[in-house]
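Thread: Modeling a multi-component assembly for a lab meeting

Hi all, long-time lurker, first post. My supervisor asked me to bring a structural picture of a complex we are working on to next week's group meeting, and I have zero experience with this. I have the sequence lines for every component (860 residues in total). Could someone generate the structure of the whole assembly? Inputs are pasted exactly as I received them:
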Amino acid sequence: MAASFQTLPGFRDFDPRACQMRNYLFETWRRVATRYGFVEYETPLLEATELYLKKSGGELSSQLFRFRDQGDRDVTLRPEVTASLARLAAAKQRDYPKPLKWFEIGQCFRYEKPQKGRTREFYQFNTDILGDPSPATDAELIALAIDTMRELGFTSEDFKVRLSDRNAWAKFAEQHELDEEQLALLLQIVDKIERDAPEVTEGKLEPLGLKREQLTDFISDPSNESDALREIQANLKARNLSKYLEVDLSIVRGLAYYTGVVFEIFDKKQSLRAVAGGGRYDTLVSTLTNGKTDLPAMGFAMGDVVIGLFIEECAGAIRKFESWRQRNASCDFYVVIDEEEKRPEALALIQELREGGLRIDYALTKTKFDKQLKTAATTLAPYALVIGPNFPELTLRNLSARAQEPIHPNTDLVSFLKTKLSNPQGPLLA
Amino acid sequence: MAASFQTLPGFRDFDPRACQMRNYLFETWRRVATRYGFVEYETPLLEATELYLKKSGGELSSQLFRFRDQGDRDVTLRPEVTASLARLAAAKQRDYPKPLKWFEIGQCFRYEKPQKGRTREFYQFNTDILGDPSPATDAELIALAIDTMRELGFTSEDFKVRLSDRNAWAKFAEQHELDEEQLALLLQIVDKIERDAPEVTEGKLEPLGLKREQLTDFISDPSNESDALREIQANLKARNLSKYLEVDLSIVRGLAYYTGVVFEIFDKKQSLRAVAGGGRYDTLVSTLTNGKTDLPAMGFAMGDVVIGLFIEECAGAIRKFESWRQRNASCDFYVVIDEEEKRPEALALIQELREGGLRIDYALTKTKFDKQLKTAATTLAPYALVIGPNFPELTLRNLSARAQEPIHPNTDLVSFLKTKLSNPQGPLLA
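Re: Modeling a multi-component assembly
Sure thing. I ran the full set together rather than chain by chain. Output:
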């Protein structure tokens, strides 16, 4: 096949099997967010480039899918959603009670080197609370992040939330008489302290007149926890979620716009990048609206690629996905037409069952009995419904147990078949 | 606000209220497709431009969001999904039983003049059956299209399927000794015959040596129906779906790659463009794979923009959407904290209820009782759950009836509250 007939590097085709994992994530994200009272929004995939240059700069702006459209506009495939959200929330905030609890599931695009855990497009689960500056908001959002992980089948053995507050470092900067620019530099150094060799950190700290030990001492001293961090911990303790939480001041997050509490979720083995992260951005909406709208905010995001790898590494999470997959098999009943003359009656029956909400498949054209049963098995349907010469009597065949029973013509078929499905089987059912 | 701080022309922000309609369409599309045994796939939003030039040409290729990426590749935001589907199906067909019954819901991009019913991005519901050339396949897909409309609340009073077959015109061409090129020209003329003034059609037909009346006579003569059309009608009759169907040979669809049966769905007032359309493309996969894979196929697509307008015009469809919206209100129970000291207990309770699958909202920080009730009403929650000084006794308050009752501390709360929700309320429940 020609090279042009491939996906672009870093872009993914989702065949039906791959799409199941995507849909499982979407459904789980949506279910947990909805339980927390969040409502869904969406913003365009293509935006004016200025929206991103204004906001973040730095690394992100070198990774843009940026071009001029047919109207000569400078446009960009969104690398993230927060800037668009800030616009939308500023425009619509008066129509909703505050705080806004909003979530989004959609694709983002970054021109990075494709590698394990890194693609050029990815789906992101974005959750934000806008309009409330309190640590109670931070706690609500962190609880949502934790419950998202639990709903995916992860336990406190598998992951932890590393919680921090940039304001603690602001205090450190005050104590060491660093100005704002020096604080920004300090945060960048702290952000890399785990990955950098000690001597690299020492070198970076020289211009600030600081030693690495001062940082590690600061990080390990619980008395440096901010009031916000204490309040968040108490709040999560009340929810019985403490065991997932670990205060760790070495977490500061890369993006410049974070203003206070930040957190990241890691697998406990730390073999992967952070699987989710977020923080407070109390000034972003104000900056983007030139001061017209002031909306303190807290958000977090989780991408589908890293969490997908994490699920594959964790037996409990795989089990949960597999059980979802079984429930979402492509078919409830496979109708086997064993008497071709009865096809019109079969079509009427199929129509009736589908209208009753059942998921029905069948051979579109004349097919041998055995072949029909074989195809039925590949759909993972638990049952076949056989239409034979005795129609309107039917035969219900359990495809795994290979047992079968006749169904009397006077049966209320839809109800009867629904009770046969031992578990709720709606494709969109939790 | 600066112009740069708007969406691009023809692109939409979906605030939570607008997003409900989008999600309603997605959920309905997915539910009906799944009932028909279709499985979901997805392909990239960005593709090599060649994929589209190879396939369609013409109008579509003038409407592309096309650019060079950072790796100097000629890339395009997909204007449609069928070309990508053909690639994916060709690559993966061996992993699935045939015919493939696949659907997709995703965004497409076309640089058109924004106007009513036309945006530069739109969501499309794509359904295709690949690997079976029979009219039974066509019928299955048309039945799915009809049931999608019915599931959205439209009746035979509101819409009709106009069914046709390009092969009927091939026969006409044979009778009038037209070559292939002339047949292509003829199809273009037929495609516009409804909208063009008679004299315009006459003018266009001149080079072919034909009169308009020959076309209209041909269209109105039932004996010109192809065997495929007769078989499809019999099949849909067996499903009791005849009343939605109308054979109309003036339908030929614009795209060059259709090879046989084609159809479009129209509102009966015909005040809108076609709300959906599709047809057979038996040679496309073979063309795109340079003959390596032969997969006869039939597909149809429905966009969110036109169907959204159609829903707004149709009382029955609006009612159905509104009832869905009510069921998908953002909250099942709003927890009112009437005794601030009990907040930690409230948080534990909220956590328990959410873990039980209920959708719970509450005021994140200390808020006056009346204000809490007012916010509860805006969430459309049917009930408030009041935590007062008598905790662990709770009060359940019906927010519309304004009645209330105490809940005894020993109650199995999650079960009790679930039975209180008279309708199934899961956010993802049909």
